[in-house]
Amino acid sequence: MLCLSFTPLLMLVLGASLGAAFPHNALRKSCSLSKYQFLVPHELKAVLKMKEQFNTMLPSDRGCNSRLFHRKWNTAELSVPDRVMLVEAELNLTTAMPGLPANSRFAETHQRPLAFLTQAQEDMRRCMPAPSHQPSGKLRHWLQKLQMAKETEPAGCLEASAILHVFQVLSDLRCAALQEQCT
């Protein structure tokens, strides 16, 4: 008789401990971002070269209003699922660069960084939190700001913003890959 009442209690304790071990908002098992914890120097050099070359092509007054990458909060303040959502949105914007000026020299320069960022974007898609995950208020506000900018800002301004802040995107990618506190 004692065994019959002990079994449900044991199941309850095991179920609760397993539930705590595997949080509901955990990232998908097929997700692996560890390769972005420390970015390869030749990839960073290619991104730097692209950014520098783009800077030389920019007119001094673009008339852009978007301040998408100027946030009052740091990526480290977000939960890991929110970091993944942030970086995925940033990479979506950043990989939309092919519409940039048809300068053949710049087209050559941005091929390698674009391939790297596109690969990171594909990896992030495998890491997206469950659809039931609700982003924090900070992230939700930023995502709304991004959507509004996409609808109102000229494409050239969005592209310039993405390229000029590409190292912030890479820093956010690294932070999402760490899955712990980052700076």
Sum this structure up briefly.
With 183 residues, the chain is mostly helical. It is built from 7 helices and no strands. The relative contact order is 0.21.
- Please work out how many helical segments DSSP would assign: 7
Shape: globular
CATH architecture of the domain at 79-182: Up-down Bundle
CATH class wording of the domain at 79-182: Mainly Alpha
CATH superfamily name of the domain at 79-182?
Interferon lambda
Give the topology string: H per helix, E per strand: HHHHHHH
What structural category characterises the helix and strand content?
Answer: mainly alpha
Helix content range of the residues, please? 55-70%
How much of the polypeptide forms β-strand, as a percent range? under 5%
Distance between the termini: 57 Å
The radius of gyration computed from the alpha-carbon positions, rounded to a whole number of angstroms, is: 21 Å
Largest sheet: none
CATH topology descriptor of the domain at 79-182: Growth Hormone, Chain: A
Catalogue the unreliable spans.
Answer: 1-28
Average of the residue pLDDT scores: 77
Number of strands: 0
Overview of this protein structure:
The protein has 183 residues and is mostly helical. It has a domain at 79-182: Interferon lambda (Growth Hormone, Chain: A), CATH 1.20.1250.60. It contains seven helices and no strands. Helix 3 runs antiparallel to helix 4 (104-127) and helix 3 packs antiparallel against helix 7. The chain starts with a helix and ends in a 5-residue tail after the last helix. Residues 1-28 have low confidence and may be disordered.
